Amino acid sequence: MATRLPPIFTLLCVIFVSVLLGSAAKSKSSTGDSVLVILEPEKRAEYSIFLNGLEAKGYSVTLRAPKDEQPLLIEDGLPNFSHVAFFASDTKNFAKDITPQSLVQLLSLGTNLILTLGPKQNLLTSLAPEFSLLLPPPATPLVSFFPERADSPSVIPINAKSSSTPNDTFSVLTPGVGSVWFSGTPFALTPNPLLFPILRAPAESFAADLSDASGLVSDALVDASEKGGEGLWAGSSLAVVAGFQTLIGGGTGHGLDAGPGEDKQARVVWVGGPSLFSDEFANKKVVEKVKEERGLKVVENPSGNKQAALDIAGWAFQERGVLRIDSVSHRKVNQTGTPETYTTNDEIVYTVKISSYNAFSGKWVPYSDIKDLQLEFTMLDPHVRTALPAVRGQAGTYSTTFRAPDRHGVFRFVINHKRKGFTHLLYTTTVPVVPPRHDGYPRFLSAAWPYYAGAISTSVGFLVFCALYLAGEAKEDKRSKKE
Protein backbone atom coordinates (compact mmCIF):
# COMPACT_ATOMS: atom_id res chain seq x y z
CA MET A 1 0.00 0.00 0.00
CA ALA A 2 1.44 3.37 -1.02
CA THR A 3 2.26 5.82 1.75
CA ARG A 4 0.63 9.20 1.62
CA LEU A 5 2.80 12.29 2.04
CA PRO A 6 1.83 14.83 4.70
CA PRO A 7 -0.10 17.84 3.33
CA ILE A 8 2.49 20.29 4.63
CA PHE A 9 5.24 18.47 2.72
CA THR A 10 3.21 18.53 -0.50
CA LEU A 11 2.56 22.25 -0.07
CA LEU A 12 6.27 22.94 0.42
CA CYS A 13 7.10 20.98 -2.73
CA VAL A 14 4.55 22.95 -4.74
CA ILE A 15 5.92 26.26 -3.45
CA PHE A 16 9.51 25.20 -4.23
CA VAL A 17 8.67 24.16 -7.78
CA SER A 18 6.71 27.36 -8.38
CA VAL A 19 9.58 29.52 -7.17
CA LEU A 20 12.04 27.53 -9.25
CA LEU A 21 9.99 27.86 -12.43
CA GLY A 22 9.32 31.53 -11.77
CA SER A 23 13.01 32.28 -11.33
CA ALA A 24 13.88 30.31 -14.44
CA ALA A 25 11.42 32.34 -16.52
CA LYS A 26 12.91 35.64 -15.40
CA SER A 27 15.77 37.30 -17.22
CA LYS A 28 18.08 39.47 -15.17
CA SER A 29 21.08 41.66 -15.85
CA SER A 30 24.67 40.65 -15.23
CA THR A 31 25.37 43.95 -13.45
CA GLY A 32 22.33 44.41 -11.18
CA ASP A 33 18.54 44.56 -11.10
CA SER A 34 17.78 48.08 -9.82
CA VAL A 35 16.39 50.51 -12.40
CA LEU A 36 15.69 54.23 -11.94
CA VAL A 37 13.29 55.75 -14.46
CA ILE A 38 13.31 59.55 -14.76
CA LEU A 39 9.67 60.22 -15.62
CA GLU A 40 6.78 62.33 -14.48
CA PRO A 41 4.70 60.10 -12.15
CA GLU A 42 1.45 60.97 -13.92
CA LYS A 43 2.89 59.61 -17.18
CA ARG A 44 3.64 56.16 -15.80
CA ALA A 45 0.42 54.80 -17.29
CA GLU A 46 1.73 55.75 -20.77
CA TYR A 47 4.64 53.30 -20.38
CA SER A 48 3.01 50.62 -18.23
CA ILE A 49 3.60 47.78 -20.72
CA PHE A 50 7.35 48.44 -20.84
CA LEU A 51 7.73 49.03 -17.10
CA ASN A 52 5.64 45.98 -16.23
CA GLY A 53 7.77 43.97 -18.66
CA LEU A 54 10.91 44.99 -16.78
CA GLU A 55 9.36 44.02 -13.45
CA ALA A 56 8.26 40.68 -14.90
CA LYS A 57 11.88 40.00 -15.83
CA GLY A 58 12.94 40.55 -12.23
CA TYR A 59 13.96 44.21 -12.20
CA SER A 60 13.18 46.56 -9.33
CA VAL A 61 11.82 49.74 -10.98
CA THR A 62 11.87 53.09 -9.17
CA LEU A 63 10.27 56.25 -10.56
CA ARG A 64 11.61 59.74 -10.00
CA ALA A 65 10.30 63.02 -11.30
CA PRO A 66 12.88 65.09 -13.23
CA LYS A 67 12.90 67.88 -10.62
CA ASP A 68 12.78 65.68 -7.50
CA GLU A 69 15.88 65.61 -5.30
CA GLN A 70 15.49 62.02 -4.19
CA PRO A 71 16.58 59.33 -4.77
CA LEU A 72 20.07 60.52 -5.70
CA LEU A 73 21.87 59.11 -8.71
CA ILE A 74 25.21 59.00 -6.89
CA GLU A 75 25.69 58.96 -3.15
CA ASP A 76 29.05 58.88 -1.37
CA GLY A 77 30.78 58.27 -4.68
CA LEU A 78 28.73 55.15 -5.47
CA PRO A 79 25.74 54.77 -7.80
CA ASN A 80 22.42 53.98 -6.15
CA PHE A 81 21.08 52.15 -9.20
CA SER A 82 22.49 49.69 -11.71
CA HIS A 83 20.55 51.22 -14.61
CA VAL A 84 18.99 54.62 -15.33
CA ALA A 85 16.41 55.39 -18.04
CA PHE A 86 15.51 58.96 -19.05
CA PHE A 87 11.99 59.26 -20.43
CA ALA A 88 11.56 62.96 -19.57
CA SER A 89 12.60 64.19 -23.02
CA ASP A 90 10.28 67.23 -22.90
CA THR A 91 11.75 68.50 -19.63
CA LYS A 92 14.26 71.32 -19.89
CA ASN A 93 15.18 71.76 -16.21
CA PHE A 94 16.31 68.85 -14.03
CA ALA A 95 17.34 68.45 -10.41
CA LYS A 96 20.82 69.64 -9.49
CA ASP A 97 22.27 66.12 -9.37
CA ILE A 98 21.14 65.36 -12.95
CA THR A 99 23.78 66.98 -15.15
CA PRO A 100 25.85 65.86 -18.14
CA GLN A 101 28.82 65.49 -15.80
CA SER A 102 26.88 63.21 -13.44
CA LEU A 103 25.75 61.03 -16.35
CA VAL A 104 29.33 60.61 -17.53
CA GLN A 105 30.32 59.78 -13.95
CA LEU A 106 27.60 57.14 -13.83
CA LEU A 107 29.14 55.49 -16.88
CA SER A 108 32.59 55.48 -15.30
CA LEU A 109 31.04 53.76 -12.27
CA GLY A 110 29.46 51.04 -14.44
CA THR A 111 25.84 52.26 -14.56
CA ASN A 112 23.98 51.63 -17.82
CA LEU A 113 21.84 54.36 -19.38
CA ILE A 114 18.88 54.67 -21.74
CA LEU A 115 18.64 58.25 -23.01
CA THR A 116 15.69 59.49 -25.07
CA LEU A 117 15.79 62.70 -27.06
CA GLY A 118 12.98 65.17 -27.53
CA PRO A 119 12.09 68.12 -29.76
CA LYS A 120 13.32 70.63 -27.17
CA GLN A 121 16.94 71.27 -26.32
CA ASN A 122 17.99 70.09 -22.88
CA LEU A 123 21.00 68.51 -21.19
CA LEU A 124 20.68 65.35 -23.33
CA THR A 125 20.93 67.24 -26.62
CA SER A 126 24.09 68.93 -25.36
CA LEU A 127 25.47 65.57 -24.22
CA ALA A 128 24.78 63.71 -27.49
CA PRO A 129 27.76 65.18 -29.42
CA GLU A 130 30.08 63.80 -26.75
CA PHE A 131 28.98 60.33 -27.90
CA SER A 132 29.65 61.14 -31.58
CA LEU A 133 25.97 61.77 -32.40
CA LEU A 134 25.09 64.53 -34.85
CA LEU A 135 21.63 65.99 -34.28
CA PRO A 136 19.61 67.91 -36.86
CA PRO A 137 18.44 71.47 -36.13
CA PRO A 138 15.89 71.77 -33.31
CA ALA A 139 12.23 70.96 -34.02
CA THR A 140 13.01 68.80 -37.05
CA PRO A 141 11.53 65.35 -36.40
CA LEU A 142 11.84 62.39 -38.71
CA VAL A 143 9.06 62.32 -41.30
CA SER A 144 8.11 59.99 -44.11
CA PHE A 145 5.19 59.92 -46.53
CA PHE A 146 5.70 56.24 -47.34
CA PRO A 147 4.00 53.89 -46.99
CA GLU A 148 0.69 55.63 -47.47
CA ARG A 149 -1.22 55.70 -44.18
CA ALA A 150 -3.74 57.72 -42.22
CA ASP A 151 -1.24 58.67 -39.48
CA SER A 152 0.82 61.82 -39.34
CA PRO A 153 3.99 61.79 -41.50
CA SER A 154 6.02 62.04 -38.29
CA VAL A 155 4.60 58.70 -37.02
CA ILE A 156 6.59 56.18 -39.02
CA PRO A 157 6.55 52.37 -39.11
CA ILE A 158 10.14 51.10 -39.45
CA ASN A 159 10.78 47.63 -40.76
CA ALA A 160 13.36 46.23 -38.36
CA LYS A 161 14.30 43.46 -40.80
CA SER A 162 15.54 45.94 -43.40
CA SER A 163 17.62 47.89 -40.87
CA SER A 164 21.06 46.89 -42.09
CA THR A 165 23.81 46.21 -39.57
CA PRO A 166 27.53 45.48 -40.11
CA ASN A 167 28.59 41.86 -40.08
CA ASP A 168 30.54 42.23 -36.85
CA THR A 169 27.66 43.87 -35.00
CA PHE A 170 25.68 42.03 -32.39
CA SER A 171 22.01 41.73 -33.32
CA VAL A 172 20.19 43.59 -30.55
CA LEU A 173 16.66 43.11 -31.88
CA THR A 174 15.12 39.64 -31.87
CA PRO A 175 15.05 38.13 -35.38
CA GLY A 176 11.57 38.31 -36.85
CA VAL A 177 10.41 41.28 -34.78
CA GLY A 178 7.60 43.21 -36.47
CA SER A 179 7.62 46.79 -37.72
CA VAL A 180 8.41 49.34 -35.03
CA TRP A 181 6.48 52.58 -34.73
CA PHE A 182 8.67 55.62 -34.18
CA SER A 183 8.10 59.33 -33.69
CA GLY A 184 10.95 61.58 -32.72
CA THR A 185 14.34 63.01 -33.67
CA PRO A 186 16.81 61.12 -35.88
CA PHE A 187 20.56 61.51 -35.67
CA ALA A 188 23.63 60.76 -37.74
CA LEU A 189 26.49 58.61 -36.47
CA THR A 190 30.14 59.51 -36.86
CA PRO A 191 32.67 56.69 -37.45
CA ASN A 192 33.25 56.05 -33.75
CA PRO A 193 34.31 52.40 -33.13
CA LEU A 194 32.35 52.38 -29.85
CA LEU A 195 29.08 53.45 -31.50
CA PHE A 196 26.80 51.38 -33.73
CA PRO A 197 23.22 51.66 -35.06
CA ILE A 198 20.51 49.45 -33.60
CA LEU A 199 17.60 50.73 -35.70
CA ARG A 200 18.11 52.86 -38.80
CA ALA A 201 15.69 55.32 -40.33
CA PRO A 202 13.85 54.23 -43.51
CA ALA A 203 15.54 55.06 -46.78
CA GLU A 204 12.66 57.32 -47.87
CA SER A 205 12.50 59.32 -44.61
CA PHE A 206 14.04 62.70 -43.82
CA ALA A 207 14.17 65.22 -40.99
CA ALA A 208 11.89 68.22 -41.49
CA ASP A 209 9.56 70.59 -39.69
CA LEU A 210 6.19 70.24 -41.40
CA SER A 211 4.64 73.08 -39.45
CA ASP A 212 6.16 75.60 -41.88
CA ALA A 213 5.48 73.59 -45.04
CA SER A 214 2.38 73.79 -47.16
CA GLY A 215 1.76 70.08 -46.84
CA LEU A 216 3.44 69.11 -50.10
CA VAL A 217 6.37 66.71 -50.12
CA SER A 218 8.40 69.01 -52.37
CA ASP A 219 7.92 71.99 -50.05
CA ALA A 220 8.90 69.89 -47.04
CA LEU A 221 12.07 68.70 -48.78
CA VAL A 222 13.07 72.22 -49.78
CA ASP A 223 12.46 73.57 -46.28
CA ALA A 224 14.42 70.70 -44.75
CA SER A 225 17.40 71.16 -47.07
CA GLU A 226 17.57 74.92 -46.43
CA LYS A 227 16.97 74.88 -42.68
CA GLY A 228 20.08 75.55 -40.67
CA GLY A 229 22.29 75.58 -43.74
CA GLU A 230 23.35 71.99 -43.06
CA GLY A 231 21.76 70.28 -46.04
CA LEU A 232 19.19 67.52 -46.07
CA TRP A 233 19.07 65.00 -43.22
CA ALA A 234 17.62 61.98 -44.97
CA GLY A 235 17.87 58.30 -45.73
CA SER A 236 19.09 55.21 -43.95
CA SER A 237 22.31 57.01 -43.03
CA LEU A 238 20.28 58.33 -40.09
CA ALA A 239 19.55 56.22 -37.04
CA VAL A 240 16.75 56.37 -34.50
CA VAL A 241 18.29 53.96 -31.95
CA ALA A 242 22.03 53.60 -31.36
CA GLY A 243 24.18 51.74 -28.86
CA PHE A 244 27.43 52.85 -27.22
CA GLN A 245 29.81 50.52 -25.37
CA THR A 246 32.33 52.17 -23.03
CA LEU A 247 35.91 50.98 -22.67
CA ILE A 248 37.09 48.79 -19.83
CA GLY A 249 37.93 50.87 -16.80
CA GLY A 250 38.17 54.01 -18.89
CA GLY A 251 40.61 52.33 -21.25
CA THR A 252 43.18 51.21 -18.63
CA GLY A 253 42.75 47.49 -19.34
CA HIS A 254 42.79 44.61 -16.95
CA GLY A 255 44.51 41.32 -16.26
CA LEU A 256 47.57 40.57 -14.17
CA ASP A 257 48.97 44.04 -14.87
CA ALA A 258 45.88 45.95 -13.79
CA GLY A 259 46.08 45.22 -10.08
CA PRO A 260 43.08 44.65 -7.80
CA GLY A 261 39.65 45.93 -8.67
CA GLU A 262 36.70 44.91 -10.77
CA ASP A 263 36.56 45.85 -14.42
CA LYS A 264 33.49 47.92 -15.22
CA GLN A 265 31.98 48.48 -18.61
CA ALA A 266 28.79 50.43 -19.16
CA ARG A 267 26.38 50.74 -22.05
CA VAL A 268 24.37 53.66 -23.37
CA VAL A 269 21.39 53.48 -25.72
CA TRP A 270 20.33 56.66 -27.47
CA VAL A 271 16.71 56.72 -28.69
CA GLY A 272 15.24 59.49 -30.83
CA GLY A 273 12.04 59.63 -28.77
CA PRO A 274 10.42 57.98 -25.74
CA SER A 275 7.29 57.10 -27.70
CA LEU A 276 9.01 53.94 -28.93
CA PHE A 277 8.50 52.53 -25.40
CA SER A 278 4.91 53.82 -25.04
CA ASP A 279 1.75 51.77 -24.66
CA GLU A 280 0.22 53.63 -27.59
CA PHE A 281 2.81 52.30 -30.04
CA ALA A 282 2.92 48.87 -28.39
CA ASN A 283 -0.82 48.44 -29.00
CA LYS A 284 -0.86 50.18 -32.39
CA LYS A 285 -1.47 47.98 -35.43
CA VAL A 286 0.70 48.06 -38.52
CA VAL A 287 -1.31 48.06 -41.74
CA GLU A 288 0.48 46.20 -44.52
CA LYS A 289 -0.49 45.28 -48.07
CA VAL A 290 0.18 41.67 -49.01
CA LYS A 291 0.25 40.47 -52.60
CA GLU A 292 -2.15 37.68 -53.47
CA GLU A 293 -3.40 36.09 -56.67
CA ARG A 294 -6.49 38.30 -56.68
CA GLY A 295 -4.56 41.47 -55.90
CA LEU A 296 -3.42 43.31 -52.80
CA LYS A 297 -4.86 42.39 -49.42
CA VAL A 298 -4.76 44.75 -46.45
CA VAL A 299 -3.52 43.02 -43.30
CA GLU A 300 -3.26 44.43 -39.78
CA ASN A 301 -0.31 43.04 -37.82
CA PRO A 302 0.71 43.85 -34.25
CA SER A 303 3.64 46.20 -33.94
CA GLY A 304 7.04 45.08 -32.72
CA ASN A 305 7.42 47.91 -30.22
CA LYS A 306 6.82 45.77 -27.13
CA GLN A 307 9.49 43.24 -28.08
CA ALA A 308 11.85 45.86 -29.49
CA ALA A 309 11.65 47.94 -26.30
CA LEU A 310 12.54 44.94 -24.14
CA ASP A 311 15.33 43.94 -26.54
CA ILE A 312 16.83 47.42 -26.44
CA ALA A 313 16.61 47.53 -22.64
CA GLY A 314 18.02 43.99 -22.43
CA TRP A 315 21.12 44.98 -24.36
CA ALA A 316 21.51 48.28 -22.47
CA PHE A 317 21.17 46.49 -19.11
CA GLN A 318 23.78 43.89 -20.14
CA GLU A 319 21.59 40.85 -20.43
CA ARG A 320 22.98 39.90 -23.84
CA GLY A 321 26.33 40.17 -25.55
CA VAL A 322 28.21 40.05 -22.23
CA LEU A 323 31.55 38.23 -22.37
CA ARG A 324 34.32 37.75 -19.85
CA ILE A 325 37.73 36.07 -19.61
CA ASP A 326 37.66 33.35 -16.96
CA SER A 327 41.28 32.20 -16.99
CA VAL A 328 44.51 32.56 -18.93
CA SER A 329 47.53 30.26 -19.01
CA HIS A 330 50.79 30.13 -20.91
CA ARG A 331 53.61 27.59 -20.93
CA LYS A 332 56.38 26.10 -23.01
CA VAL A 333 55.63 23.26 -25.40
CA ASN A 334 55.80 19.84 -23.72
CA GLN A 335 55.76 21.46 -20.26
CA THR A 336 52.94 21.99 -17.77
CA GLY A 337 53.92 24.78 -15.40
CA THR A 338 54.00 28.50 -16.12
CA PRO A 339 57.64 29.65 -16.31
CA GLU A 340 58.86 32.90 -14.82
CA THR A 341 60.87 33.71 -17.95
CA TYR A 342 61.05 32.60 -21.54
CA THR A 343 64.11 32.20 -23.72
CA THR A 344 64.35 33.56 -27.24
CA ASN A 345 62.94 31.18 -29.86
CA ASP A 346 60.99 29.17 -27.26
CA GLU A 347 57.80 27.50 -28.46
CA ILE A 348 54.98 28.98 -26.34
CA VAL A 349 51.43 27.68 -25.84
CA TYR A 350 48.85 30.33 -24.86
CA THR A 351 45.34 29.33 -23.71
CA VAL A 352 42.36 31.45 -22.66
CA LYS A 353 38.88 30.49 -21.48
CA ILE A 354 35.94 32.78 -22.27
CA SER A 355 32.35 32.60 -21.06
CA SER A 356 29.10 34.40 -21.89
CA TYR A 357 26.35 35.49 -19.52
CA ASN A 358 23.05 33.63 -19.82
CA ALA A 359 20.31 35.94 -18.55
CA PHE A 360 17.69 33.19 -18.29
CA SER A 361 19.74 30.98 -15.99
CA GLY A 362 21.75 33.79 -14.41
CA LYS A 363 24.96 31.80 -14.99
CA TRP A 364 28.10 32.14 -17.06
CA VAL A 365 28.43 29.48 -19.74
CA PRO A 366 31.43 28.68 -21.99
CA TYR A 367 31.41 30.64 -25.24
CA SER A 368 33.15 29.33 -28.37
CA ASP A 369 31.58 31.48 -31.11
CA ILE A 370 34.34 34.07 -31.45
CA LYS A 371 35.83 33.57 -34.90
CA ASP A 372 38.37 36.40 -35.02
CA LEU A 373 40.05 36.40 -31.60
CA GLN A 374 43.72 37.43 -31.77
CA LEU A 375 46.76 37.35 -29.50
CA GLU A 376 49.61 39.84 -29.60
CA PHE A 377 53.09 39.37 -28.13
CA THR A 378 54.32 42.93 -27.84
CA MET A 379 57.27 45.00 -26.70
CA LEU A 380 56.26 48.55 -27.60
CA ASP A 381 55.15 47.19 -30.99
CA PRO A 382 53.63 43.77 -31.66
CA HIS A 383 56.39 41.30 -32.54
CA VAL A 384 53.91 38.45 -32.95
CA ARG A 385 50.23 38.70 -33.89
CA THR A 386 48.44 35.41 -34.33
CA ALA A 387 44.90 34.02 -34.34
CA LEU A 388 43.41 32.41 -31.23
CA PRO A 389 41.10 29.72 -32.61
CA ALA A 390 38.60 27.79 -30.52
CA VAL A 391 39.71 24.33 -29.41
CA ARG A 392 37.47 21.55 -30.65
CA GLY A 393 35.87 19.51 -27.92
CA GLN A 394 36.65 22.10 -25.21
CA ALA A 395 33.83 24.63 -24.85
CA GLY A 396 34.96 28.19 -24.32
CA THR A 397 38.67 27.37 -24.77
CA TYR A 398 40.91 29.17 -27.27
CA SER A 399 44.56 28.23 -27.76
CA THR A 400 47.51 28.86 -30.07
CA THR A 401 51.23 28.00 -30.31
CA PHE A 402 53.90 30.41 -31.52
CA ARG A 403 57.64 30.95 -31.31
CA ALA A 404 59.07 33.73 -29.16
CA PRO A 405 60.97 36.32 -31.23
CA ASP A 406 64.75 36.24 -31.38
CA ARG A 407 64.95 39.34 -29.25
CA HIS A 408 65.20 39.65 -25.50
CA GLY A 409 63.30 42.18 -23.37
CA VAL A 410 60.07 42.63 -21.41
CA PHE A 411 57.12 41.40 -23.49
CA ARG A 412 53.37 41.33 -22.92
CA PHE A 413 50.66 38.88 -23.91
CA VAL A 414 47.75 41.07 -25.06
CA ILE A 415 44.17 40.11 -25.87
CA ASN A 416 42.29 43.19 -27.08
CA HIS A 417 38.97 42.12 -28.62
CA LYS A 418 36.50 44.88 -29.47
CA ARG A 419 33.39 44.07 -31.47
CA LYS A 420 30.29 46.24 -31.70
CA GLY A 421 27.50 44.99 -29.49
CA PHE A 422 29.70 42.80 -27.30
CA THR A 423 31.54 43.72 -24.14
CA HIS A 424 35.21 44.33 -24.78
CA LEU A 425 37.80 41.74 -23.81
CA LEU A 426 41.16 43.14 -22.69
CA TYR A 427 43.77 41.07 -20.87
CA THR A 428 47.50 41.69 -20.53
CA THR A 429 50.27 39.64 -18.91
CA THR A 430 53.92 40.71 -18.68
CA VAL A 431 56.74 38.17 -19.10
CA PRO A 432 60.49 38.64 -19.63
CA VAL A 433 62.25 37.05 -22.60
CA VAL A 434 65.96 36.43 -21.94
CA PRO A 435 68.82 35.23 -24.16
CA PRO A 436 70.11 31.68 -23.63
CA ARG A 437 72.59 30.98 -20.83
CA HIS A 438 76.26 30.42 -21.62
CA ASP A 439 75.63 26.69 -21.58
CA GLY A 440 72.36 26.98 -23.40
CA TYR A 441 73.78 27.42 -26.86
CA PRO A 442 74.41 24.37 -29.09
CA ARG A 443 78.04 23.25 -29.38
CA PHE A 444 78.06 23.59 -33.14
CA LEU A 445 75.94 25.96 -35.18
CA SER A 446 74.92 24.92 -38.66
CA ALA A 447 75.08 28.51 -39.85
CA ALA A 448 78.77 28.71 -38.79
CA TRP A 449 80.04 25.81 -40.91
CA PRO A 450 81.73 28.18 -43.41
CA TYR A 451 83.76 29.61 -40.53
CA TYR A 452 84.47 26.14 -39.22
CA ALA A 453 85.67 25.08 -42.67
CA GLY A 454 87.87 28.16 -42.98
CA ALA A 455 89.48 27.57 -39.59
CA ILE A 456 90.04 23.87 -40.27
CA SER A 457 91.46 24.50 -43.73
CA THR A 458 93.82 27.15 -42.35
CA SER A 459 95.00 24.81 -39.62
CA VAL A 460 95.51 21.93 -42.04
CA GLY A 461 97.34 24.21 -44.47
CA PHE A 462 99.62 25.41 -41.71
CA LEU A 463 100.46 21.85 -40.64
CA VAL A 464 101.18 20.82 -44.22
CA PHE A 465 103.38 23.86 -44.70
CA CYS A 466 105.27 23.09 -41.50
CA ALA A 467 105.74 19.45 -42.54
CA LEU A 468 107.02 20.39 -46.00
CA TYR A 469 109.31 23.05 -44.59
CA LEU A 470 110.85 20.73 -42.03
CA ALA A 471 111.20 17.95 -44.58
CA GLY A 472 113.04 20.34 -46.92
CA GLU A 473 115.58 21.30 -44.21
CA ALA A 474 116.27 17.63 -43.44
CA LYS A 475 117.12 16.90 -47.09
CA GLU A 476 119.51 19.89 -47.27
CA ASP A 477 121.34 18.68 -44.14
CA LYS A 478 121.88 15.20 -45.69
CA ARG A 479 123.28 16.71 -48.90
CA SER A 480 125.71 18.93 -47.00
CA LYS A 481 127.06 15.93 -45.06
CA LYS A 482 127.63 13.89 -48.22
CA GLU A 483 129.50 16.73 -49.80
TrEMBL record:
GO terms for biological process: protein N-linked glycosylation via asparagine. GO terms for cellular component: oligosaccharyltransferase complex. The chain crosses the membrane at residues 449-472. Residues 330-471 form the OST48 middle domain. Pathway: Protein modification; protein glycosylation. Subunit of the oligosaccharyl transferase (OST) complex that catalyzes the initial transfer of a defined glycan (Glc(3)Man(9)GlcNAc(2) in eukaryotes) from the lipid carrier dolichol-pyrophosphate to an asparagine residue within an Asn-X-Ser/Thr consensus motif in nascent polypeptide chains, the first step in protein N-glycosylation. N-glycosylation occurs cotranslationally and the complex associates with the Sec61 complex at the channel-forming translocon complex that mediates protein translocation across the endoplasmic reticulum (ER). PANTHER family: DOLICHYL-DIPHOSPHOOLIGOSACCHARIDE--PROTEIN GLYCOSYLTRANSFERASE 48 KDA SUBUNIT. Belongs to the DDOST 48 kDa subunit family. This is Dolichyl-diphosphooligosaccharide--protein glycosyltransferase subunit WBP1. The lineage of its organism: Eukaryota, Fungi, Dikarya, Basidiomycota, Agaricomycotina.
